[in-house]
Description:
single chain, alpha/beta, Rossmann fold, seven-stranded mixed beta sheet, two-stranded antiparallel sheet, 9 strands, binds NADPH dihydro-nicotinamide-adenine-dinucleotide phosphate, binds ribulose-5-phosphate
Amino acid sequence: MSDNAFDFGMIGLGVMGRNLLLNMADHGFSVIGFDKDAAKNAALESSASAGTTVKGVGELAQMIQLLQRPRKVMMLVPAGQPVDDVIASLLPLLDEGDVVIDGGNSHYTDTLRRVKYLRDKNIHFMGIGVSGGEKGARTGPSIMPGGDQEAYQNVRPMLEAIAAKVNGTPCVAYLGREGAGHYVKMVHNGIEYAIMQLISECYALLKSAGATNAQLHEVFRQWNEGDLQSFLVEITSEIFLQKDEKSGADLVDVISDKAGSKGTGKWTSQDSMELPVAVPVIDTAVAMRTLSGYKEEREAAAQIYGDESKSILTLDELLPLVHDGLLFSTILAYAQGLAMLFQASKDLAMEIPLPEVVSVWRGGCIIRSSLLEVFTTAYQQSPELSNILLNQDVAALVKSKEENMRALVTFAANSGTAAAGHMSALAYFDAYRTGRMPTNLIQAQRDYFGAHTYQRIDIPGTFHTEWGQQ
Ligand SMILES: NC(=O)C1=CN([C@@H]2O[C@H](COP(=O)(O)OP(=O)(O)OC[C@H]3O[C@@H](n4cnc5c(N)ncnc54)[C@H](OP(=O)(O)O)[C@@H]3O)[C@@H](O)[C@H]2O)C=CC1
Ligand SMILES: O=C(CO)[C@H](O)[C@H](O)COP(=O)(O)O
C-alpha cells in the first residue's frame, strides 16, 4: 500500500480497539493500529478477515504518517491519565483539521476539558461511547457520539457502517454537544449496573426456592423469548450452563462473590446527585457491589445472624412473581437513567436527544432489550417526556406487573433474601406516584432546628416559626 493510504487509525489494540478496528476493516475500510505491545500488533493482523487491509505498528509516528488527511484517529485505552498521555504524544504529530476520538469510558468532564484544549489547537476532538463488549465491537456495537458536529459528519459513514443494525437502522446517532457522548455512555453503564443487580437478586430469590442451575438456565432462556427479552437475560441463561474446566462444577458456583467495577456506575450515582436527579436503583446497584467486597465481615455477620433464606413459596409459585418483579424493576431502572439524561440535557446544555438515545440502545449495547422498542415509541410520541413512567403505554405495562412486584418484595422480606434493587425500585415508584409526600415534616424539622424556613400550601412566600413555644 502507498503512503498516506489508511482510512482510520486506532491507538490501543486491547479488547475493544482490536475488535473495533477489525470491524472497520470488515466493512471495507483500510485500517492501521498502534500498540506498544508487539504481540497485540501481531494479533491484530493475524485475526483480520481474508481480503481486508489491516496493519499493526509499534510506533505512533509511523501510524500517523500512514493515515489519509484529514486524519481520523481513535483511542481505546483505559480512562484517565492514559487518555491525556495519548493526546500529549499525538499532538506534535497531527495537523490542523485532524479528528481525534476517545472511544473509551472517559468521564464527561475530562472530555469537556479535552474538547476545549484541542479546539484551541484546531484539532477536532470527540468523546464517543461504545458498548457491546468484545463481540459487539467486532460485529456491531452501539455507538454514542457527542461533541464536534463537523468531526461527526467526517466519521459518520464509518460509524454507521460498523454499528449494530436494528431493522436496517444503524445504532449510532449524534447524541449532543461537547461531552454528551460520554455522558450518555456513563448513564448507559449506570442502567447496566442496575439491571445486572436486579438479575442477580432474581438468581438469589429463585435459588431460595430450590432452583438448580439447569432450571435457572431454562427459566432465563424462556424469559428471553418473552417480554423480558434482553442481552443480559440471554447471557445469564448461558452462564448457568457453563462448566468449569478445572473442577467440572458449574462455573458460576466457583466464582467469588466479590463484584468488580471500573467506576462508571459510581460516576452515574455521583453525577445524578450533582444535578440532582433521583436514581436510587442505580445507587443501590453500586452499593451492593461495594458490599460484596466486605467478604470477611459478611461471613462474620452470617455467623451471628444466620444467612439462610427460608422460601415460603414453591418454585412454581415464585416464578411469575420474579418474572414480573424483574420487568417492573427494569423499567424503573431505565426510567431513572433516562430521567437523568433529560435533566442533564437541560442543566448541562448538552442537548441530548432522548428519542435517538433509546433508538441507539436498541441494538449492539449491553442494555439492549425489547423494552427499548416501547421507549422508542414513547419518545416518538413525546420527545420532551421528563420520565417514561408518564407515558401511557409504559404506565399500562408497569401497572400490569405491580401486584406481583409487591408480592415479590413481600416474599423477599419474609424469606430474608436481600433484594435491595427491587425494593428500591418499588419505593421509588411509590414515592413518584405520591401527590403529597411526607416531606412537609422534613421541612418542619429543618425549620425547627435550623430556621431553614418553609413554604406553605395555602399562602405564597417563605415562612419561619418559633417552634415549641405553644
Ligand atoms: N472491555 C469492554 O467490554 C469495554 C471497554 N470499554 C472501554 O474501552 C476502553 C478500552 O478498554 P479495553 O479494550 O477493554 O481495555 P484493554 O485493557 O483490553 O486495552 C487497553 C489498551 O490500551 C493500551 N494502553 C494503555 N495505556 C496506554 C497509553 N498510555 N498509551 C497507549 N496505549 C495505552 C494498552 O496497551 P498495553 O496493554 O500494551 O499497555 C491496551 O492495548 C476503556 O476505557 C474501557 O472502559 C468500553 C466498552 C466496553
Ligand atoms: O462499558 C462497558 C460495557 O458497556 C464495560 O464493560 C464496563 O467497563 C463494565 O463496567 P464495570 O467493569 O464497572 O462493571
